[in-house]
Amino acid sequence: MLLSDFTVQNVAAGAALLGVTSGVLGAFAVLRGQSLLGDTLSHAALPGICLGFIIAGSRHLPSLLLGALAAGLAATLLMFLLDHYSRLKTDAILGSVLSVFFAVGVVLLTWIQGQAGTAHGGLESFLFGQAAAILRGDLLLIGSITVAALALVSLFLKELKVTVFDPVFAATLGYPVALIQAVMTMLVAVAVVVGLQLVGVVLMAAMIIAPAVGARQWVNRLEHMLLLAAVLGAVAGVSGALVSSAQRGLSTGPVVVLVACGIAFFSILFAPGRGVVWERQNRWRSSRRLRTRQLLTTMLRLSQEHSDSDYATEEGMLNAYMGLGTRRALRRLESDGLIKHVVHMPEEGSHWMLTGAGREAAERVLRELGRQ
Amino acid sequence: MAGGSGRLGKGVEPAVRHEPDLAVHVEDLTVSYHSAPVLWDIDLDVPPGVLAAIVGPNGAGKSTLIKAILGLIRPAAGHVYVLGRRIGSVRNRVGYVPQRSTVDWDFPTTVIDVVMMGLYGQLGWIRRPGREHRRRSLAALAQVGMEDFATRQISQLSGGQQQRVFLARALVQDADLYMLDEPMAGVDATTERIIIDLLRQLVARGKTVLVVHHDLQTVTDYFDWMLILNVRVIAQGPVGEVYTGENLKAAYGGRVALLRDAGTKPAGK
Asked: What is the CATH number of domain A278-371?
């Protein structure tokens, strides 16, 4: 059994933590319309990891993660300054900070790798993630970060909610909105730090976005969205990590991301109430209903105009009036017992007549329409 | 009241009150954005208990004025006193109803949740709203005729319903001064009637209401006091005195000089 393996247990636990933090903390970035913040902060983490390695002299995880967090802080500060003191729009700010930091990171990484004689520390594993690199001690660090971040979110949930939904109104209540927004950005940096080892710098953005987007399709309240995002993230993390452990040569990051994105796409398509497929079905169903109602009222009006309660309507007339083929809809009405097929001038085509039930139904529809 | 435990905002009341008899007192207010002034040399004295309109052409600075009064924008010059004090110490006595477009209505939350946000200022940090807050929020929704919509998802609301939810959110604060930014723009006739009736009730109870109004035609029907604004104050005062062809032409008729020519004086000031 895969899970009885010690390494795999570590991986699964680390992946679960990753999924939970990126789901919950990423939700705020997504709701703020800053989904690519995860991309910027994760790419910005690379120079931080390298600097942490250089300063610590070895692959000492707390140093690396501290470096990543510090780089995230620097990137956040730079983004804030660019936002307030330049005319750049948000997407340009995110893009430029991402590129600059990542470029510095790659320069540092290749420099480290080029150092003859020193241990590389396998830092390139931070680019795409490596499941096997997680040690049990690492889990303690990552776990405590997760708990702290979730506690913060839970305590200040209403402050976060009002700041994301209506920051101007929050300011009129007296909240320090800029500070709260900075904290939300730093929380994304924390999520990035938690997930870096497993998913890597390049693809971390997807973990920030996908679970939250997926969760949003199924629920309608922020509290539920955060819970569901945590679950979906954990599921994606664990299944991705297990799959990449079971199979040689599979990088963990991409597999986890594929699962997470698969969940998100499935949700976007099939979630009831918001899903694309659901919406199309609903629209089709209501236009079908509209057609049958129109047929009933048309037949009733015709029989009224001809002052004949047993008036047999020729199908051709209905086709002309509706502007399309009515056979299918007529058959539906027939199977519902609202009309019946009658033989009347068969050489001219099918004729249909309202039954007693059909007459009542048609009158009801007309009454409803008259009321509108 | 000075900030008790859990209240947001400044806790200490300044000893000196400035123009306590005015609901809003603005002096020399100037706000600039990049290189041009959006508001210039604004002197505004709003008496208490009026239902006041702020009108002016697009780009006149009406929303900016509201935000400057609320302390959301730092002015280049001038100062603002609300209810005789600086805005920081009276936040719990001022209710703000922003334009509907400022918010993403796809946010996952319900109508009652949004209304309860109006009470967050009184709750302070961390504390969650309880049953009493929920009851007051439902009462505010009832005032705008939306109590049946309490658990409705906000994305399912029409424009008029959204506006009424924002109004309820401000009402639940039970403020002394209400500031609304184009509340009747783009709403149906029923909603407009509900809003104006509600505003009249507030004024009858002694509140002051300031409304950035989009429709010049209805100013004389709805309001008793007005400010005509186009970057600078064109005129302010009771509607009967200020709503004149001369003043409206000065505001809406093209470029507005920041410093008026010697010898001419806008009427009503």
From this structure: 1.10.10.10
Residue contact B8–A174, C-beta within 8 A: yes
Query: What does DSSP assign to residue A132?
Result: G
Per residue in B179-203, pLDDT (tens digit) is: 999 999 988 888 899 999 999 999 9
Please, what are the domains in chain B?
A: 24-252 (3.40.50.300)
Q: What contacts A24, CB < 8 A, 6 or more positions away?
A: A149, A150, A153, A191, A226, A229, A230, A233
Which residues of chain B fall short of a pLDDT of 70?
1-17, 254-269
Chain B positions in Cβ-Cβ contact with residue A162 (cut-off 8 Å): 117, 120
Q: Which numeric CATH code is attached to A2-257?
A: 1.10.3470.10
Residue B72 to residue A31, Cβ atoms within 8 A: no
Rounded to two decimals, the pTM is 0.81
Q: What is the CA radius of gyration of chain A?
A: 31
Q: B95: left (phi > 0), else alpha (psi -120 to 50), else beta? A: beta
Identify the three-state secondary structure at position A90. helix
User: Are the C-beta atoms of residues B219 and B55 closer than 8 Å to each other?
Assistant: yes
Interface of B with A in 235-264 (CB under 8 A): none
The nearest CA of chain A is from the CA of B124 a distance in Å of: 9
